[in-house]
Amino acid sequence: MKIEEAKKMINYLLDNNLDLVTKGQNKISIGLEGAPGIGKTAIVKEIAEERGAKFVRVELSSMEEIGDLIGIPCKEFSMISPTEEEQWVIEKLVDEYLSLGWKLCPNCSPRMGYAIPSWVPTDPDQEVLLLLDDYTRATNLFMQAIMSLIQFGEYISWKLPEKTHLILTSNEDNGSMNVTSLDAAQSSRLLNFKLNFDYEQYGKWMDRCNLKSELINFMLFHPEIFEQSDRINARTYTMFANALSGFKNFDSTETLESIDLIARGCFGDETTIGSLFVAFVNNNLDKLMSAEEMLDGTWADTSKKIKENVTKDGMYRADIASVLTMRLINYIEMNEKDSKKADKAIKRIDEIIHHTEILLTEDLIFNLIRKLNGKFPGKCAKMLMDPKVRIKVLG
Questions:
Q1: Which CATH superfamily is domain 3-63+127-194 in?
Q2: CA-CA distance, 99 to 90, in Å (whole number)?
């Protein structure tokens, strides 16, 4: 499953969880499994931000004592509130509850419970995405302890608030990772999705995060880099992009030598990313137009620049045109709520279609129009009435 597909599914399940609670049923815990660095943690944090929910991340592997996970054992007493509600109260709070008009439940023996750990959300009105990150890297003792939490959202004497969703991330148990294997009893307690890396969706994420445009173009131009080594993934490439963010340009020999050293530090000496990026710069591909540059300015100037970008040594470069198209699509998706930017994009794409020379191939234009029409069907109605556009879209 791709990241964007997972986002839609997770949002559905979170909404469904809230509905299940109203029916007195248990919420469903969600598992995300995939290779390191593909964005499992980032997607959960992003969903929380989009929903206006609180994001809480817990690393089981960093906990040393089981009490850090399940809470400290404590004696509890059953008490009755002034409104006749019964509740278990830890021993050190009994006197405070008595002062508030509560009474000890007659004929009820105390029990041993667990104090609520500090990492557990307690606000009943706040939607919370509680992430147990890399949970299969924890020891088997911790894995056993969370089984009830995963299935029922509770552990003996405490439970998660109704609006708190439990999400767990893990790496694949393929023999190459230091992870704890799940047995059937553990894996059957959560709904697990296997995530796959998608470089185009990663490019959209980089655009949303305003990472350096040259690094986005390089990644889109060389997606094969992610197949070189396990060390090359979205996490390490983002680190590489951030490490290069301080360079104003990449033209000097000294800068390119520094970039090669940074690449080796991020990905290892055996990879070729440093030399690929040097070639990328030497071929002036770091000067490719941004989406904003393609949409701004007069059409005479812009069409000239696009042609210069997609033509190298007198040959049309479909690979460069593809990168420019992906950046345009990313821009459209990021600004789908901005009517003025949508109008500008539609007008500019209409100019690309009717240009006397080929700037983007028909398959790329089809993708652009399909994306625009999916986001702004009303605005694209006039464009789709154009016979030339209809021929390009319908073939």
A1: P-loop containing nucleotide triphosphate hydrolases (3.40.50.300)
A2: 15
